[in-house]
Amino acid sequence: MSLTGALQIGRSALAASQAAMQVAGNNMANVATVGFHRRSVHLAAARDELVGRNAFVGQGVRLDAIRREVDTALQSRLRDALSQEHTALIDQRFLTSIETLQNELTDSDISSALSAFFGAFSELANNPEDTAVRSLVVQQGMTLSNKISALREDYAVVIKEIDRELGASVTAVNDILDRISLLNVQIAQTEQGVTETAALRDQRDLLIDQLAENLDVSVIEQASGATDVFVGSVPIVLGGQSRGVELRVETVQGKTEVSIRVKADGTKLNVSTGRIGGLLRQREETVQPAIDDLDTFSAQLIFQVNRVHSQGQGRNGYDQVTGSYTVDDTTATLNSTAAGLDFPIENGSFFVHVTHKDSGTRTTYQINVDGDAMSLDDLINEINVTVAVPNVTASASSGNALVLTANSGYEISFSDDTSGALAALGLHTFFTGSDASTITVNETIQNDPNLVAAGAGHVAGSNGTALALADLQDVAHTELGGSSLREFWRNAVTSLAVKAGAANDAVKSSALVRESLAAQVQAVSGVSLDEEMINLLMFQRQFQAAARFIAVIDETLQTLLSII
Is the residue at 404 inside a domain? Predict the structure, then answer.
């Protein structure tokens, strides 16, 4: 082996140790850099040189590779944990929000207003002729309906907030996808399938982590170094091409449906976790069901109260009564979609009573109704022609509501409705509206509390209807699955409270999982200053030794040259 070869050994050691010290310094410089993966130096002995029979001498050291320390399987698990944690945070946020809006277990919740409303009817049953108590009933009805309407509006605000955040998240995701696709191009061009550009890969990994906070994603790295990104089995990034995502809002059978789709071809993405997955689930599984429950509760409160109230009598009857519900087509059968009534009408009948105001003489007429066979025109004909109720004229208003008009000196009242037609058409009803957003006390009753039905059987001072209404909150209804109004609302509130409690636990557990995985990732990819200082000292010694070795070889060369 020549002295020149010895110098090359020293030179290789200097170069290797210098590069290694540079890597250690870079690691220490980025100890606090988010997304940075520790680099490690991998050295290998240079190929041996034959210097004699069966005698080989090494030719120094070579820098084999500088690698990012990454555990891809662990990294994938951490991304899943990030998605789960952000889902849990969204769940907690909106479940808590709905629970706060309901404000149950206080004196200003719907349960309290419901009890106060039916309690007012109980008080009316004790004092059926008291005008002040009748006004109290109307006031409690307004309080209850206002609370329901206000809660419904608050729910709508939450829905809008979710939709707004979905839009913002989709915009953020598209920005991330564009940046990932650009980095894919830069990485493929730089690496050429030979080396590894660590800084660009760190940037891309950080972006994929941010993407995982919004969507449940998986990645597949190609031979070129580019990474394809998938949601389920649907690609959203293919190499240097971002396929993009979009928020699509559609109305299907009268209901709003929100979905996330691939912008490039409209393929629906089944996003289950991440911020977007959480927002979609909260919209569909928490807020919308809460709205549906409130609407169902309100609709049955309206119909059941109206059904009882419409058969009772107030302190006076009507000179003219106009239904508060209209039909879309007066020729369509009442229960058909074309008619557009909010509540069904059964096959039955109701009684119309016509009273002479001066003499008190009262005549009663039975009106037969079949919602599946009769239209509003048919019902008008039933009253005017078939039964021919004297001193009363039935007609349709300009808005297609049923109108009953008594001749001068007469008044109209009702009883014994087995069909539900009076409540469905809005004759002598306490409430108007059909759901939580439209419920209110009938304006006619607001203007004249004497029309509040307390009595039954046209007995002066009776309280039969008031008692029936007071008991109504605890009566089971098939329309509510066999639950009473009170039970239905309490079950809805309790169910939400259970979900909110589970969401709080999920946040804690998902945070623990994420923290544990993050610690494991840091153990692999994070920078330890103590370890880097040890490496720095080791490579410093290697550099010093190589320099001393070169100095010795140089002295030897000088000695040899002086002899020559």
Answer: yes
